[in-house]
Q: What sequence folds into this?
């Protein structure tokens, strides 16, 4: 559906995108996550044709975005990070204004706008001046506007940023509904945990480049793999140490009395083998468990801001 190949963008001497690649398939809710300044908004603005790329290619449903920007805009609904001003229009006038931009007017526009405002829960706000709506309501209005031309692809730039938990939950519920109705969604955030609730796929961007990409299941698998195994023994500490030293999958061990934290680079079968080796050496193991890590700690690791690594040191 959307292919981004080697996307580059500089602002003066500053490189915002240094060859970004993305591949989004139909029906995916694709989360673009990265720290502040990573290049998310720049990438989205280039896809939307709101800024010129220095190099690279953006292909949407086989159409080159640089060659046919208008055709691409018809396929995409865009929810920007900043809704901007609503020029003192009522909610209804605002929707009519944008519907007219897509050539939708009269009764058709009226019906469509009402249906969309119902979908985002603003049907009782049609007479309200849009500028006076709360931030959460404005975000939902922005979503309704993005859906006016019934695009198959939606791009949302940090839509939950600045929303309170209730409004953020409500917005995520709307995204889930859009996925159910067959839309493909690209959504950015600087919080991986925000996206993990709604996304099927995640791409982590750092310094204008892709740092990691995969399905949510793959990413969660990598999180588990990057966590240490906690092993508690009831004695035979030196025998346990000997096992750890011999096992090539053990990368580091730290110990606090009878509790070991073992950095282990192996799959489930290799974990089972390690446990078997401990039993074989008659080490009384009473606990053997992979620590569960958070999405944010994984994010910190792959974007090189990991403080947790320090605790996993080889101290024997
Ligand atoms: N118009 C501009 N002129 C100069 N530098 C810019 C401009 N827009 C963005 N940048 C810089 O490019 C880099 C990428 O910015 P961008 O807004 O794309 O990041 P982001 O990941 O969306 O960040 P945030 O989460 O803070 O919105 C940043 O270092 C930013 O300061």
A:
């Amino acid at each position: 559906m959307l292919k981004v190949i080697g996307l580059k963008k500089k602002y003066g001497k500053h490189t915002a995108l240094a060859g970004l690649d993305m591949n989004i398939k139909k029906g995916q809710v694709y989360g673009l996550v990265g720290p502040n300044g990573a290049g998310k908004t720049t990438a989205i603005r280039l896809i939307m044709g709101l800024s010129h790329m220095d190099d690279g290619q953006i292909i949407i449903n086989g159409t080159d975005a640089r060659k046919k920007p208008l055709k691409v805009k018809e396929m995409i609904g865009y929810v920007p990070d900043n809704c901007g001003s609503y020029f003192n229009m009522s909610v209804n006038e605002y929707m009519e204004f944008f519907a007219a931009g897509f050539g939708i007017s009269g009764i058709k526009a009226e019906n469509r706008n009402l249906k969309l405002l119902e979908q985002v829960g603003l049907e009782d706000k049609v007479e309200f001046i849009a500028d006076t709506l709360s931030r959460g309501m404005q975000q939902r209005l922005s979503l309704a506007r993005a859906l006016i031309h019934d695009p198959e692809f939606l791009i949302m730039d940090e839509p939950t940023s600045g929303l309170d938990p209730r409004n953020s939950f409500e917005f995520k519920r709307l995204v889930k509904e859009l996925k159910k109705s067959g839309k493909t969604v690209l959504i950015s955030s600087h919080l991986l945990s925000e996206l993990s609730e709604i996304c099927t796929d995640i791409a982590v961007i750092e310094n204008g480049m892709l740092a990691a990409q995969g399905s949510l299941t793959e990413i969660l698998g990598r999180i588990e793999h990057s966590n240490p195994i906690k092993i508690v023994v009831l004695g035979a500490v030196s025998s346990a140490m000997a096992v750890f030293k011999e096992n090539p999958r053990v990368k580091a061990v730290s110990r606090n009395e009878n509790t070991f934290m073992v950095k282990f680079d192996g799959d489930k079968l290799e974990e089972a083998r390690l446990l078997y080796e401990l039993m074989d050496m008659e080490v009384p193991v009473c606990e053997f468990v992979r620590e569960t890590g958070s999405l944010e700690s994984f994010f910190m690791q792959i974007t090189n801001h990991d403080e947790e690594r320090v605790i996993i040191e080889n101290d024997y």
About this structure: The chain has two domains: 2-214, 228-291. The pocket of adenosine-5'-triphosphate is lined by residues 11, 14, 16, 34, 36-42, 190 (CB under 6 Å).
